[in-house]
Amino acid sequence: WVCWVCLGGVFSQSEILQREVYLFEQLTSTSSSDSMYHMKCITFLRPTRENISLLCKELRNPRYGYYYICK
What we know:
The protein has 71 residues and is of the alpha+beta class. The protein has helices at 4-8, 13-18, 49-60; strands at 36-44, 64-70.
């Protein structure tokens, strides 16, 4: 869920992993439906109708223990 392009311009992948960030997904990703309540989710969103709709869909059926929403 983290904007890889945004972080990739600031940190290398090894730096991101050193900061204990382990999973990157897009809101449109349906590859993982497993609950990961032990993980925290940080979202970086543009406030578009589509993104808000996708976020609402995720929060109705949360996969993570905590959510931090950034725009």
